[in-house]
Amino acid sequence: MSPNFPAKLWDTLDSMRGLRTVGARGLSTPAVELARRLRETRRRSLVLCNPLTAEDMMVQSAPEASPAKWHLAHTTWFFESFILNEFQSGYRLFNRDFPWLFNSYYQSFAAFPEKRLRASFSRPTLDEVLRYRGYVDAALDHLFSRNLHPEAFNRLELGVNHEEQHQELLLTDILNALFTNPLRPAYLVPDPNQRSTEPADAPALRDIAFEGGLVEVGASGDGFCFDNELERHRVWLEEYRLASRLVTCGEYAAFIADGGYRRPELWLSAGWDAVQAHGWHCPLYWTESGGRWTIFTLRGEQPLNAIKSLPVSHISYFEADAYARWSGRRLPTESEWEAAAAQEPIAGNLLDSGRLHPAGLATESAQPRIPHPAQLFGDCWEWTGSAYLAYPGFKPLNGSLGEYNGKFMSGQMVLRGGSCATPQAHIRATYRNFFSPETRWQFSGIRLAS
Description:
Elements: H1 8-14, H2 29-49, H3 68-87, H4 98-101, H5 126-144, H6 150-180, H7 192-196, E1 207-210, E2 213-217, E3 233-237, E4 240-243, H8 249-257, H9 269-278, E5 286-289, E6 292-297, E7 300-303, H10 317-326, H11 334-341, E8 381-387, E9 413-416, E10 433-435, E11 444-445
Parallel strand pairs: 8-11
Antiparallel strand pairs: 1-4, 2-3, 5-6, 6-7, 8-9, 9-10
């Protein structure tokens, strides 16, 4: 992990039993690698909570958010419920109430409390949740000491990816919780080195042409993927262009100044309804006072003028679509985005960088003259113009795990590419994220297409 994160919770985890013998003699190479990634992922969740107080970890500031303590418990519940209960002979539940208390939305598994009530879970205590994690980690260690059933391996891999998803949700929920606090406290202290390296201006926005034609999209099934990335199939793309980078805060400020939030002709009907209903007049976390704009980040309040070259973030699909229309362009389809990203390396400003905020690009003169879009991975999830629907041949997983993705294929839009809060090992070109079009609390931004 980045040295920006204090280390005391590493010590907390090391003081517990659990995941000590991973990599032991006799495990196959894939199992050794999975065990290493599992331990790293379980540790990272605690490290991300290190700057928080126990009181911070109880806050649920929006209906779509969850308290940090709940994230720690729910990710542990996933391993206990779908792996240990089924594949660890003689496994005993840590607490008989936890299977329903920390269930999220798996209707076929158990009843569960309303999501909006998660902030009321003052019990179990944080100490008990940490003991729960240690108990389950020890049982996972024991499971790895034996030959893994193939289905247990698959579910462990899914569990790791599930916890990585919750690490990103954890950071977005923390940001929202601290923003709604009248004191606006910072999650981490500002990094002076980061501020000094921000470019004053973004490189000029260029259009990069793609030939289109018959292309294959979706995961091949070789290596881990979620069920919604299957089956791989062919689609026809007309010639198209993608912008060379993401839209910046400064460019979005020009949209605001031009009355973007007051012009219904720029908005989809449901988007204009959302603007009116929620009183939107700027992105989430932007504040205007005396003609000056500031943006709240995980490192505290930042003046817009200092970060105007950084990608605009925390934008809904409706806002992204309205901005694209204002600029005379559109959003890419998810197939266009994937075809452009398929051969690009998985590299960028992701969680591993420790920045925890979208980053600016070097000036045009410092960039290589290679016609590839920048910022495809990391910085901000990129809204596409594609509804979240099943691919041809899609089959959800068997049992309760079939509720993981498939049942949300209605009223959602697809985002691609990951963000500054996405672990690098988690993202790939075929990854399909999805949220309702009004969602703004994620690190979501804009790439234009034409």
